[in-house]
Amino acid sequence: MNINWFKNQDNVVYANTKEFVDNFAKETGISNLEEKIEEFKKCPTPEGVTVIGRKRTSVKLFIPNLTFKEEIEMGENVWVYMGENYESYCLY
Questions:
Q1: Burial call 7-44: b when 16+ CB within 10 Å, e when fewer
Q2: Helices 33-42 & 17-28, crossing angle to 10 degrees?
Q3: What is the DSSP secondary structure assignment for residue 44, as one 8-state letter?
Q4: Which pLDDT tens digits describe the chain residue by residue (92 residues)?
Q5: Which residues are within 8 A (CB) of 78 and not within 5 positions of it... i.e. 6 or more apart?
Q6: Which residue from 31, 34, 28 is spatially nearest to 91, judged by alpha carbons?
Q7: How many angstroms separate the CA atoms of 64 and 61, rounded?
Q8: pTM of the model
Q9: At a CB cut-off of 8 Å and minimum separation 6, what does 6 contact?
C-alpha cells in the first residue's frame, strides 16, 4: 500500500457507514462486516485487519493516519481496501 495512492481522489469513495455496509457485505459475502468494522474502530492496529468473505473475497480495514504515520484527508476514519485495482472506501 502506498500513501500517494490514497491521496489521489480518483481512488477514494467517501461513504456513510450505515448506507454502505449492508450492500457491500452482500456483494463480498462478509455477513458480519458491520460488526468487524465496529470492533476495529474500538481497537485499531497500525497494520489493519483482513476480513475474509464467503465469495473468495477479502478486504483490509485500516486507518491511514495510523498505518502511514502521516495525515491525509479523512485519514482518521476506517477505510476499506481491496487492492489498487479497486476503489478504496473511506467510511464516515
A1: eeeeebeebebeebbeebbeebebeebbebbeebeeeb
A2: 130
A3: -
A4: 899 999 999 999 999 999 999 999 998 999 899 999 999 999 999 999 999 988 788 999 999 999 998 999 999 999 999 999 999 999 99
A5: 17, 37, 40, 41, 44, 61, 62, 63, 91
A6: 34
A7: 10
A8: 0.90
A9: 12, 64, 68, 72, 75, 79, 88
Length of the chain: 92
Cell of 34: 458491520
CB 78 within 8 A of CB 91: yes
Q: In angstroms, rounded to a whole number, what is the distance separating the alpha carbons of residues 70 and 55?
A: 33
Structural contact between residues 48 and 27, judged by C-beta atoms closer than 8 angstroms: no
d(CA 44, CA 6): 19
